[in-house]
Amino acid sequence: MTLDARITVRRSGLTVEVELAVADGEVLAVLGPNGAGKSTVLRVLAGLLRPDAGRVVVDGDQLWDAAGVHVPAHQRSLGMVFQDHLLFPHLSATENVAFGLRARGVPRARARAAAEAWLDRVGLGDLGDRRPGRLSGGQAQRAALARALVGDPRVLLLDEPLSALDARTRLTVRAELHRHLAEYRGSAVLVTHDPVDAMALAGRVLVVEDGRVVQSGTPAEVARRPRTDYVARLVGLVLLPGTGSGTSVALEGGGTVAVAEQVTGPVFAVIRPESVALYLERPAGSPRNVWPLRLVSATPHGSVVRCDLAGEVPLTADVTATSFAELGLAPGADVWASVKASEVAVHTR
Amino acid sequence: MRRPGDGGVPAPLLVPAVLAVAFLVLPLVGLVVRAPWSDLGSRLVEPAVGQALRLSLVAATLATLLSLLLGVPLAWVLARSRVRGRSVLRALVTVPLVLPPVVGGVALFLVLGRQGIVGSWLYETTGYALPFTTAAVVVAETFVAMPFLVISVEGALRAADARFEDAAATLGADRWTTFRRVTLPLVAPGIAAGAVLSWARALGEFGATITFAGNFPGTTQTMPLAVYLALQSDPEAAIVLSLVLLAVSLATLLLLRDRWLGRAGTT
Question: Are A192 and A281 within one domain?
Fold first, then answer.
């Protein structure tokens, strides 16, 4: 049972042509720059915009097709989270969350109880009486998530859900969103321009540029073998899941990564490819992060070569074309990779 | 940092501005100065004054309610729907704003009068003739006042974020539920401001009323008509009636300024 869509929307200056399929329990990230047509895709999936051609099918039910089927948004089983939460300003948080249930005919008392239970789940149990104007950005976005999920929709659509938040709030809300997405059983589509959001939250990534899909795959695949320069610049990051303690992270796949700050609990160690240095011999001195790895593939893009490295701590590295040539590397070669602890970012997951 | 206002107001702007204030305020001051304060009390309790005032308030309120009932849906159609010819529709709706009210009264008479296009049919089938009744006062005032409400509410609807309505749709609300539970509360300040404007306009209505409804004490003689009539026979009575209208207008403005007009102006 899945969300399955092929969408063509023609607008002046941009034709959006995207095909996607999302299984139950799966999170698909649609990643791309502003103006690439990501939000258009989401509006079509929601039923707020009619495409020019294609189809939208959820669990076998046609919601839109070129032959004239159009199920309007309010008759679809979906939840949507918007960038700037769009909580109704004249209703309390509880009334906002209960709104969808009330609109679908659930009796007032039951809708209220369900809304309060969901506000509890997102950690806003005691703020239900507040109007959105008196909630912080993070609290409002949590309430918006509860409002989208309370009806247990078959499809969850997230439109840049974190980009209106400040950097610190963003980290905590992202971690919570990750937890709720893991528990969600329907098909989720996340639209974002931030590769970290896509890689931390989604099982699969669709990179969209100028209305077209330029690459798709798991976040790791896309980061390791970027098919275009744009994708390489956008998603070079390596996210290594692990458990933090002190100033090191024990990775789930084995090995440890030294970091500069104190960390505890489940985290991602995030390493940018340009901060990875490659050597033929074990580097002198005593950098804390040194691993013997094997070069799997090398893809030139721009003036650098993206190296896909396998081993205990799988990495991608960007080295300049000159040093790549000097090292004389070829796929299959054994190399030493090192990363300064201060260049490893840590995100709670 | 220096704000543009810090240097004072240049004379070419200051002098006309002061003149404008004087021009707007002096007539009102004159009204207050010339009022027969000594026998004001006895004149105010004259039955004719109460009658005209009551009729004015009731008719203006009914006209405002009618404008709300018909005007808010029309504003929604103009602001939100994709009906063809909306710009033509908007132009037609705003005609009564610029049309001399007397002309409006004549037009109403031609359509709803006993010999009118709709009025003759109404008279033949039911024996009811609308002109020169209190209902005609309400109709005339509605005709003149409703455009104010429509324009004001349409503006509020355009300024309101339509994405709230998208959000409501994704939550399972059809367009009617969305209108009632999301759109209407969002534009409530704009609706209130529009209602106050049309109420004030209806309260002061003269031309269309006297043309279409006549000037019969007790049934169609509203305050403005009474003022005009009194001015020809008993100027002091006209001043008293004018003072009452001025007081009602000021009271309305003060009462609603903070609650509605201020908010509608800032959001």
Answer: no
Same domain, yes or no, for A287 and A258?
Answer: yes
The answer to whether A75 faces chain B, any CB pair under 8 Å, is yes
Q: How confident is the model at residue B260 (pLDDT cuts 50, 70, 90)?
A: low
Chain B residue numbers with beta carbons less than 8 Å from the beta carbon of A58 are none
Cα–Cα distance for residue pair B131/B20, rounded to 1 Å: 40
Residues of A in contact with B176 (CB under 8 A): none
Q: Which of residues 297-326 of A touch B (CB under 8 A)?
A: none
What residue type is assigned to position A133 of the chain?
G
**What total of structural domains would you count in chain A?**
2
In angstroms, the CA A37 to CA A31 distance is: 10
In chain A, the residue whose alpha carbon lies closest to the alpha carbon of B182 is A88
Q: A101 is in which domain, residue-wise?
A: 3-232
Residue A305's domain is classified under what CATH number? 2.40.50.100
Asked if residue A141 and residue A76 are part of one domain, the reply reads yes
Last residue of a domain, one of A232, A250, A268: A232
CA proximity to B213, closest of B101, B105, B53, B54: B105
* Nearest CA-CA distance, residue B163 and chain A, Å: 7
Residue B5 has what DSSP assignment?
G
Same domain, yes or no: A201 and A290: no
CA distance A81 to chain B (A): 8
CA distance A53 to A333: 48
Q: Clarify whether residues A190 and A63 are in a common domain.
A: yes
pLDDT, one tens digit per residue, over A115-157 is 999 999 999 999 999 999 999 999 999 999 999 999 899 999 9
> Nearest CB to B174: which of A74, A86, A147?
A74
pLDDT score at A46: 94
From residue A223, alpha-carbon distances to A254, A314, A330 in Å are 20, 12, 20
The minimal CB distance from A103 to the residues B164, B173, B188 is found for B173
Structure-token pair, residue A308: 């896909």
Task: Find, in chain A, the residue whose alpha carbon is nearest to that of B172.
Answer: A74
Interface contact A108, partner B, CB < 8 A = no
Q: What is the mean predicted confidence (pLDDT) over B106-127?
A: 89
**Segment among A188-202, A300-314, B86-100 with least mean pLDDT:** A300-314
Q: Tell me the nearest-neighbour CA distance from A342 into chain B, angstroms.
A: 42
pLDDT in tens, B167-198: 999 999 999 999 999 999 999 989 998 999 89
Query: Which residues of chain B have a CB within 8 Å of the CB of A71?
Result: none
CATH number at residue A105: 3.40.50.300
| A154 and A7 within one domain | yes
Residues whose CB falls within 8 Å of the CB of residue B20, separated by 6 or more in sequence, listed in order = none
The rounded distance, in Å, linking the Cα atoms of B151 and B148 is 5
What gap in Å lies between CA A283 and CA B24, rounded to an integer? 87
CB nearest A90 (choices: B163, B178, B186): B186
- What would the pLDDT profile of A259-281 be if each residue is shown by its tens digit? 888 888 888 888 888 889 999 88
- Within 8 A of A99 by CB-CB distance, chain B residues are 168, 171, 173, 181
- Choose the final residue of a domain: A232, A253, A274: A232
